[in-house]
Amino acid sequence: MTLEKEYGIPTVSLSNENIVSFGTGPHQEYSTGMPLRFVGVPYPFTGLAADRLAEWLQGKDRVSGKSLMPAIVDALTRPLTAEEQKSGTPPEAAGEPRLLPPDTEDNLQRLFKDRGWTDFNPVILPTEKRVRAMLKGTSHRPDELVKKEAGTFGTSRPFTVEKVAVIAVMAGAKPEYLPVILALASQVPYMDSTTSNANMVVVSGPIRREIGMNSGIGVLSPTAEANSVIGRSMNLIHSILQGYKEGETGFSSLGNPLRYNNVTLAENEEALPEGWKPVHVENGHPPEASVLTIFSGWNFVNCSGSVVEHYAPQLLMRDFTRVLAATGSATLIMDPSVARQLRDTQGFASKGALGEWLAKNAEVPAATYWANSITSGMTAPLGRQGLEPYATWLKVPGETLIKHLPNARSIRTVVAGGETASVWFLTDFMGGRGVSIDAWR
Amino acid sequence: MAPKSLVTLMLLAGTVLAGAARAEDSGERRITVLNPAVTEKRAPRVPLAPRAGTLEGKTVYLVDMNYEGLGRTPVLEEMERWFGANMPGVRTVRRLKSGSYVSDDPALWKEIEASRAGGVILGVAG
User: Fold this and answer.
1) Which residues of A touch B39 (CB under 8 A)?
2) What's the domain range around B76?
3) Neighbours of A5 (CB within 10 A)
């Protein structure tokens, strides 16, 4: 787009045939405003030998149906259509009415599903009475703007407190959950990827207890109303307010089962060992603050059994880091009993101390590290520009072990669980700084 | 109101009330709910750069956006061969964009502009 707009150079974009529709559809309409010319190439092409690639170039453009290379030449030379020469502000789309036409509950449930406003479970229909009751959960005015640039890629999808209350009703929330859901909504757009990423929502501070969030036994299972409903709200916010729809505005090939509830949990702050601070306090928030922190990543690995005496927990954690997406981040979710063992028998006086140990000891072969497309796409270019340690990691033999989690501050720990087994999960999740829930009370 | 009209009105009201009662009995009561949807604002339209109608005698840049990050450009190399065999009047220049696939490369764009290139083939995403 920059080449066309700022430099006046005819350009054709080659893209995976399965996602061209995004570039020529919603991305054009709401983000770029430019009717870029795409040629759709067959997918996948990675790793094809030269003779296969040559054969591939003799194939068809999956957009126009023409032969691929002539289609590319055509995109660079064909005179512009009237549509492609348009400039200026397009007419506004008709605004969404505040109320829907009256209908039966069955028809409305069907309408909500057809319009992509559900997670395909029935929703609580947002009557005026229910939304009014929900709004009692916050002091903010219903017409207050929560976020304007809410769409994927920051497109303009402004929404108000009332819209979030509508979603909270639909998800089955109680009014006292609303400040948490408003804080959650204020963080859109959420991270999305074609490569099956997921999010985790950690609630910290006094509101955990006030609204009955589970941080104890069965914390990651459907064991508490607040955890379930807040996690569900994130999906409704994602699809309705952000406008994410698989195959139209998002293209996650396999998706991710963690998205069913977005790993929504409260930290078991009361069970933290001495010296181990809650997630929000480590991020600089006061202990008495209620804070919501979103984590994002790809991997979620079960330790597969309880901690054993003959192999210290941090050693297995170190070993397991080899499967991470190599984003340089890791987040451990561990039972309080594991945290206590790490402190009392292994000497980790804080979460940070564990992070520092892992940063120094977690290793992976260089070839494995670079085999990950997320890593190679983002950090190899930095290495090629001379940035260390990536520059060195690009040069070493593939079997050389490299310390792939070099930044201890990017290794986080969340303590939760019911102390019926000394278990933990390792993730590659990157944690945010956390946002105030109290600001939305 | 004439007595006949009053009777009609009463009959109609009775019919409506009975109908409403039947609808409730069968779960067909109509309700009004708030609309969760938001309105997305359309982006201002931006025209494409004019096309010259031919690439003959011009330079075409083949730019790898570095999707995998490792600097290999086999697809664009094959395209370059295709131009050599099928459109020998077109000069091709192959470049690897610096930075990751999401970062800008103004130096390269300026080089392309200064060369008065006839077009850019940018890829490959996916």
Assistant:
1) 92-96, 157-158
2) 59-123
3) 16
Question: What DSSP string describes A110-165?
Answer: HHHHHTT-SSSS-----BHHHHHHHHTT-SS-TT-EEESS-SGGG----EEHHHHH
Rounded mean pLDDT of A133-161? Answer: 95
Per-residue pLDDT, averaged over A137-158, amounts to: 94
pLDDT band at A101 (very low <50, low <70, confident <90, very high): very high
Q: Does residue B105 lie within any of the structural domains?
A: yes
Give the pLDDT band of residue B109 (cuts 50, 70, 90): very high
What is the number of structural domains in chain A?
A: 2
* A249-273 per-position pLDDT tens digit: 888 889 999 999 999 999 999 999 9
Question: Which ranges of chain B would DSSP assign to H, the alpha helix?
Answer: 3-25, 74-86, 106-114
pLDDT at position B102, please?
82
Of B42, B99, B126, the CB nearest to A19: B126
Interface mutation vs chain B, best among A2, A5, A14, most B CBs within 10 Å: A14
Here the ipTM equals: 0.91
A351 and A281 in one domain? yes
pLDDT of residue B26: 55
Q: Do A149 and A292 fall within a single domain? A: yes
pLDDT tens track for A187-227: 999 999 888 999 999 999 999 999 999 999 999 999 999 99
Burial class (CB in 10 A: 0-12, 13-18, 19+), A24: middle
Best residue in A73, A89, A244 for a mutation probing chain B (most B CBs within 10 Å): A73
DSSP-based helix, strand, coil % in chain B, nearest 5: 35, 20, 45
Total domains in chain B come to 1
Q: Is residue B108 part of a domain?
A: yes
Give the Cα separation of A217 and A278 in Å (integer): 18
Cβ neighbours of A92 in B, within 8 Å: 39, 41-42
B114: chain A residues, CB-CB within 8 Å: none
Chain A residues lying within 8 Å of B102, measured CB to CB: 378
Decide if pLDDT at B89 tops 90: yes
What range defines the domain where residue A12 resides?
2-85
Is residue A56 in some structural domain?
yes
